[in-house]
Write a structure and sequence with these properties.
The protein is mostly beta strands and 142 residues long. The chain contains two helices and ten strands; from the N terminus they run ααββββββββββ. The structure holds copper (II) ion.
């Protein structure tokens, strides 16, 4: 059966409330509609995507899944080249220093991107010979 026909059959089977739902696409329930969720993966020895780009002012949720073994995610809340004093450019909802990324337990990293700049992150769980080079960047665009 072709997809269009199938959808039509579905409408008939379930009825009008569903049609209304399609007219104004309902997103999956989420605590905050303004959060930008970015799916990332970690594996020996890279994060993907990298760099990650977001607009200044965005509430960001990074969901990081591992493709091989346990890794960690640690990001500097101050942009590259900053002296690390004053208000951080990224404001986190939790105080974890190293977010662990376990098999079947993705890391969820939430922050508000307050200041434009390039922010460096790295793996913070020793994962093998290339661990020291497992890095990436978040770019907060003005
Ligand atoms: Cu590592």
């Amino acid at each position: 059966m072709r997809t269009a026909t199938r959808l039509f059959a579905l409408f008939l089977a379930i009825g009008f409330p569903v049609v209304g739902g399609f007219a104004s696409p309902a997103k999956a329930p989420q605590a905050d509609q303004n959060v930008k969720v970015i799916e990332m993966t970690a594996k020996k020895y890279e994060f993907s995507p990298s760099p990650v780009r977001v607009k200044v002012g965005t509430k960001v949720q990074l969901k990081i899944t591992t493709l091989d073994r346990k890794h960690g995610f640690k990001i500097n809340p101050y942009p590259d080249g900053s002296d690390g004093k004053g208000e951080p450019g990224l404001v986190f909802t939790s105080k974890e220093d190293c977010f662990t990324i376990d098999k079947d337990a993705p890391a969820v990293v939430e922050f508000v991107a307050k200041t434009p700049g390039t922010y460096s992150f790295k793996c913070c769980v020793h994962c093998g010979l290339g661990h020291g080079g497992m890095k990436g960047q978040l770019i907060v665009e003005p």
